[in-house]
Design goal:
The structure holds 2 protein chains of 2 kinds. In chain A, about 25% of the residues lie in helices and about 40% in strands. By secondary structure, chain A is an alpha+beta fold. Chain A is globular and about 45 Å long. Chain A starts with a helix and ends with a helix. Chain B has 2 domains: about 10-65, Winged helix-like DNA-binding domain superfamily/Winged helix DNA-binding domain (Arc Repressor Mutant, subunit A, Orthogonal Bundle); about 70-110, no CATH class. Chain B has a 3-stranded antiparallel β-sheet with strand order 1-3-2. Classes of the chains: A alpha+beta, B alpha+beta. At the A-B interface, helix 1, strand 1, helix 2, strand 7 and helix 4 of A face helix 4 and strand 4 of B. Strand 1 of chain A pairs antiparallel with strand 4 of chain B, so a sheet runs across the interface.
């Protein structure tokens, strides 16, 4: 297997029982309602909110009770209800961000949501995931917290 | 070691190994603007982080990217996004009031390993 294959985009998909319009809205405007903040955030149990600002240039912001904790990325593509794209760099230098694109497509039983993460191999937290932590995300978070102070 | 890739020289070394393939310290030192001892030191850090592997060839070591490290990172991210999308699907089912469709799947890159389909060949 070549390196090029190993760093190919990571692609995940799920079908949800609703329209693309509604799926897009739930994914973006109502992110806080479903995003697993307790495990996928900087503050873990202290995280209170995450907001995706719905426009090109908008940011994905994590909050705790005192306000914004940090930025996970910046919206680069905003084409509701088909596509939202954003840089992805929780804990990293934005210049080294990966990029995530999420598309919403009508299928027989609802909407297929396809998430594509490119440039992920540039992330230093990947090294941390490799370093033997139970959860790579913990490693990301440590990095994020350290670097956002 | 915690931020093995957080250093520009180490990233340059990784990039050179990726583009040029397995390389000696001398070869890397010709392409990355630091001294040979510095290259060796950076390679040591990358090795400890599991990003670079080496094997002796004659009197020198040949360094290459350790693919296991990349595969593990990929597996981890695969789970990270899988968990996030599962949570999303569960939320949609809850608010939209049905229980029909289900779990995330990997598309084209099953098991965290890619099988081609690369849109981003480097």
């Amino acid at each position: 297997m070549s390196i090029n294959q190993e760093i190919a985009p990571l692609v995940k998909a799920v079908v949800v029982p609703t329209t693309p319009e509604r799926a897009f809205e739930l994914f973006t405007a109502e992110m806080a309602a479903w995003w697993p903040l307790a495990t996928h955030s900087v503050g873990l149990d202290k995280a209170t909110d995450v907001r995706l600002e719905g426009a090109v240039g908008g940011r994905i912001v994590e909050y705790d009770k005192d306000g914004p904790v940090g930025y996970w990325g910046t919206v680069s593509d905003w084409d509701p209800p088909q596509t939202v794209g954003f840089s992805w760099h929780p804990g990293n230098d934005p210049k080294e961000a990966g990029h995530v694109t999420v598309t919403f497509r009508s299928v027989d039983d609802g909407t297929e949501v396809v998430l594509t993460h490119t440039g992920w191999e540039r992330r230093p937290d990947g090294v941390k995931a490799r370093a033997g932590y139970d959860s790579g995300w913990d490693y990301v978070l440590d990095f994020f917290v350290t670097h956002s102070r | 070691m915690l931020d093995a890739l957080g250093d520009p020289t180490r990233r340059a070394i990784m990039e050179t190994l990726r583009r040029q393939g397995p390389s000696s310290v001398a070869f890397l030192a010709d392409r990355v603007p630091v001294s040979r001892p510095a290259i060796s030191q950076h390679l040591k850090v990358l090795g400890l982080a599991g990003l670079v592997d080496h094997e002796p060839q004659g009197t020198r070591n040949i360094y290459r990217i350790d693919r296991t490290g990349l595969a593990e990172v990929r597996d981890w991210l695969d789970q990270f996004w899988g968990d996030a999308l599962d949570a999303f699907a569960e939320h949609v089912r809850r608010v939209e009031g049905t229980t029909e469709t289900g779990h995330t799947r990997s598309t084209g890159n099953g098991g965290g390993r890619s099988t081609g389909e690369s849109e981003e060949e480097r």
